[in-house]
Amino acid sequence: MTLANIGLQELIDAGLHFGHQSRRWNPKMKRFIFGKRNGIYVIDLNKTLAQLKLAQQFIHDTVAKGRKIIFVGTKKQCQDPIKDAALSCGQYYVNSRWLGGTLTNNQNIRTSIKRMQEIEEMEEKGEIKNLSMKELSRIRHEQERLKRYFSGLSEMTTMPGAVIVIDINRESIAVKEANLMGIPVVAMVDTNCDPDNIDYPIPGNDDSSRAIHLILEILTGTIKKASSEYAELAAKQKVEEEARAKEQAEKDLQELKDSGAKASPKQRARPRREGEKPRKKAAAAKTKSESAPQPATEQVAPQAEAEPQAATDHPASISAEVPAETAEAQKE
Questions:
Q1: Backbone angles phi, psi at 229, to 5 degrees
Q2: Domain tally, the chain
Q3: pLDDT tens digits, one per residue of 61-93
Q4: CATH code of 227's domain
């Protein structure tokens, strides 16, 4: 069901306009009250439709980004609708009791969820049958308690993008934790509620099962639509990424082939390491040098040692003998 299919008559039929007794009202809800009849405040359904539209748009944008939402409602008349609504659109829920620290101390909550999953795994493998009666009874009691509190949060691995609350007076701890963590809150607010801490208040009767069911049906319809859009977008992006990767791989392969075709045989040889000399050239040069004929070397006869000349008293008195052939050449 979508908001386009909802009119004032559908809201009236669901009893969404009935508030609390006038003596139990909260003055901060005055802007959402149409009037008083028989001691009961009547909610302005035109403002309910306007607020519902804002909440619907916010939830659509949140889920379309891939974020998750927690449904919270623990009073008797909304436990089953909360669970059914969350499961129908693949979201989280708390319908038994909101444990303090679910958002602000999420590490401890994840430890409890892990323990619950370990017990379920033991049961699947049949290990639980080997326990004694006393130990089995203790395990069963622990499992029941963990499922009651955490079965709707077992898949939660990250912080939610929003919290949807039914009866904010009863779920005040959940609202406070969401405010502390900066998580937007969408909630039904009756005439006895304080809407100041709610990001997207939806004025309406939060005690009527039909009213609760109608609001949840509208919101879950929005979530389903946004989830479908997100899935389509994710699939489209995946296909585009695969196409780009394939195109890039083909381009790289073509460049590799082109560079290989242009390279010479010497260039296609094993890449030379840094500092390594070309072995083949060096070996060829060495072989060539070894095979080349060695030039003949002249045998130089050892010269006879010159006889020491007689020393005179002065170096100038030493006269050199000039060979006869040299003297004749000089005369000519």
A1: -65, -40
A2: 1
A3: 999 999 999 999 999 999 999 999 999 999 999
A4: 3.40.50.10490
DSSP calls for 217-236: HHHHHHHHHHHHHHHHHHHH
Residue showing tokens 């296909």: 239
Beta bridge partners of 187: 165, 201
Q: Is residue 229 part of a domain?
A: yes
* Residue 21 CA: distances (Å) to CA of 39, 190, 196, 214, 285: 6, 11, 21, 23, 110
The H or E element spanning position 62 is: helix 45-64
Per-state percent for the chain, helix, strand, coil, to nearest 5: 55, 10, 35
**Contact present, 278 and 269 (Cβ < 8 Å):** no
Q: Establish if 306 belongs to a structural domain.
A: no
The pair of structure tokens assigned to 27 is 């003055």
Backbone angles phi, psi at 114, to 5 degrees: -65, -40
| Domain coverage including residue 85 | 3-103+159-235
**Each residue's pLDDT tens digit, 137-178:** 898 899 899 999 999 999 898 999 999 999 999 999 999 999
Q: How far is CA 257 from the centre of its chain?
A: 37
**Assigned domain for 216 exists:** yes
Cβ–Cβ under 8 Å, residues 194 and 26: yes
- How many residues does the structure list for the chain? 332
163, part of any domain: yes
Amino acid found at 313: D
